[in-house]
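Same chain as my last thread, 140 residues:
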Amino acid sequence: MTIELKMLLYSTILLLVLLVFQVLAEIIQNGVGWALGARDEEPEVGGYAGRFERAFYNMLETFPAFAALVLMVEATESWTSLTAMGAQLYFWGRVFYVPAYVTGIPLVRTLIWAVSFIGMCLMAWVLVGVATGAVTGAAA
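reply #2:
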């Protein structure tokens, strides 16, 4: 399994773990009755529960693009040190983003988010090279 696919696997697991933490935080804030009910009325989610929710949705915004980039790298056999580094930057950026967001560290949180975004840009850069013919497959 390539580094890129491993990072996609680990990112998927991270997304699932984040979902569990987000749900648990909302249950702690709103009670088990709310979690088991119809939830016709959404209570305001704040504090740690709100931060977990926003961190979860933030990852949902970037995860499809990351997954697409990894799958394109795999399909075109365009594995390079840049795509491997990009995938790792994305994953580790997301790992560190969650605690930075949940603890409410504004500037650090944004810088960590930028690291994960740069990771995706590195992967996209290689793929653009492949798509334009400037670089071919694994020779990138």
